[in-house]
Amino acid sequence: MRLSILVTAAAASLLLVACSPKTETEAAAAADHAGAAAASAASDTAVNTEAAADATVAAARNAAGATADAAGTAARKTDAAVDAAAEQK
Fold it and tell me: How far is CA 62 from its chain centroid?
C-alpha cells in the first residue's frame, strides 16, 4: 500500500516537471523523497522478515526441546509402570 502511494506520488511529480523550473526542482525533490521512502520501506520489510524468521526458528527449537522432554518423561513413566507390573507378579 505504501509503495503504491509512493509510486503514484513519483508519477505525479514527473508530470509536474514540465511546468516551471521551480516546479521541476520541487518535483525532483519529491521524487527523491519518494525513492528514499520506498528504499526505507523495503529495508524495514527485510528487517522485519528476518526477525520473524528468527522468532520462528526459536519457537521451533523450543517446541523440539519440549517434545524431547515429554518423550523422556513418558519413557520414564512407562519404565516405572513396567517395573511396578513386574513386582506385582
Answer: 19
pLDDT in tens, 39-86: 999 999 999 999 999 999 999 999 999 999 999 999 999 988 988 888
Residue 6 — very low, low, confident or very high, per pLDDT cuts 50/70/90?
Answer: low
Three-state helix/strand/coil letters over the chain: CHHHHHHHHHHHHHHHCCCCHHHHHHHHHHHHHHHHHHHHHHHHHHHHHHHHHHHHHHHHHHHHHHHHHHHHHHHHHHHHHHHHHHHHC
Radius of gyration of the chain (CA): 31
> What cell does 54 get?
528468527
- Which range marks the domain in which residue 27 is found? 2-88
* CA nearest to 28, candidates 13, 40, 15, 38: 13
Question: What is the total count of domains within the chain?
Answer: 1
Regarding pTM above 0.85, the answer is no
